[in-house]
Amino acid sequence: MGKGYGCAKSILFGEHFVVYGLPAIGVGLSKKIEVEISKAPHTLLESSHVDANLLAGLDAIKNAMGIKDNFVIRIKSEIPVASGLGSSAAVSVAFVRALSEEYKLNLSDEKVNAYAFEAEKVYHGNPSGMDNNLAMCGGAIIFQKKPEGASITPLRIGKPMNLVIGVTGKKKKSTAQLIAEVKLKKEKYPELFHYLFEAEKNLIDLAIKAIEHGKLEEVGELMNLNQGFLSAMGVSSRENKDIIYAAREMGALGAKITGAGYGGSCVILAKNEKNAEEIAEEIRRLGYVAITTVAQ
Ligand code: MEV
């Protein structure tokens, strides 16, 4: 029997832009997924974490690792599926770690991450690799996709950030579909997107400094600006907007989509712990799921 775990993540800045090589900022959250495997004659999934494509990704991992055995795979999850919190990447990382334990491979984090990425490619078409990196359960990182491989730089958080994750419970479009739609728009309006990308590049530079120096009001303002850019790209749904506007009206410093968007989840920077609880309550009152967490 082998066991492994992976973490939920939230992208604070730069989703979608990251696919094209811009830096993005993400934080690993304390919510986890645990995978337990035992050898069996046939594959059997025991999980409430149902995702039609899940096994295809796990098979890709087994293929890449040259493993032919089948398993009963038990998944215990604190992360809502298809919510923009990186649940698929967390399962992939947890599965690789479970295989590593089962076969006593003692895989390095780098290897775990690389095998998990095999599943991410099955799920998301052309992912940046950011989700699997954050599912490894580190703190905050600056992630940048580069031709020679991803660069990951730890980011110091100057002042703890009280976050609320608002989960719409609806993922109206898959990550792969949203990435493809953004690509089409970018190809149709190259000049417009050039300026949008330049603005985002500038915004990320400012966000890195604001996070490092604990300037939370500025972090929040930049989150709101980033939401404007994502909305312009067409990845914000009515449910996302409901949550974002409700949070802002409750005094949030900033609120935006986190992850691929069009449903999924929103990340909200609250003023403090009390404000985070109030915002979470309001989001629940509107019929959505809300999780409070601290990034530090
Ligand atoms: C998905 O969580 C984030 C995207 O930027 C896609 C990716 O980075 O692979 C939309």
List keywords for this structure.
27% strand, binds (R)-mevalonate, Alpha-Beta Plaits, alpha+beta, globular, six-stranded mixed sheet, Ribosomal Protein S5, domain 2, four-stranded antiparallel sheet, 296 residues, 2 domains
Tell me the span between the first and last alpha carbons.
34 Å
**Structural Rg:** 19 Å
Helical/strand content category? alpha+beta
Quote the average pLDDT: 93
Please give the count of helices.
Answer: 9
Bound molecules: (R)-mevalonate
Q: Major sheet, described briefly?
A: 6 strands, mixed
Q: What is the total tally of β strands?
A: 10
Strand content: 25-35%
The number of distinct structural domains comes to 2
Range of helix content: 40-55%
List the uncertain runs: none
Which series of helices and strands comes N to C?
EEEHEHHHEEEHHHHEEHE
Outline, from the CA principal axes? Answer: globular
CATH architecture label name of the largest domain:
2-Layer Sandwich
Q: Under CATH, the topology of the largest domain is which?
A: Ribosomal Protein S5, domain 2
Q: CATH first level of the largest domain: which class? A: Alpha Beta
Provide an overview of this structure.
This protein has 296 residues and is an alpha+beta fold. It folds into 2 domains: 2-155, Ribosomal Protein S5, domain 2 (2-Layer Sandwich); 161-295, GHMP kinase, C-terminal domain (Alpha-Beta Plaits). It contains 9 helices and 10 strands. The chain has helices at 54-65, 87-102, 109-124, 130-135, 175-188, 190-212, 216-233, 238-249, 273-285; strands spanning 2-13, 24-40, 44-47, 70-77, 140-144, 151-154, 161-171, 254-258, 263-269, 289-295. The strands form 2 sheets. Strands 1, 2, 3, 4, 5 and 6 form a 6-stranded mixed beta sheet that branches. A hairpin with a 6-residue loop joins β5 (140-144) and β6 (151-154). The longest helix is centred in the C-terminal third of the chain and has 23 residues, at 190-212. It binds (R)-mevalonate (MEV). (R)-mevalonate (MEV) binds next to α4 and α5.
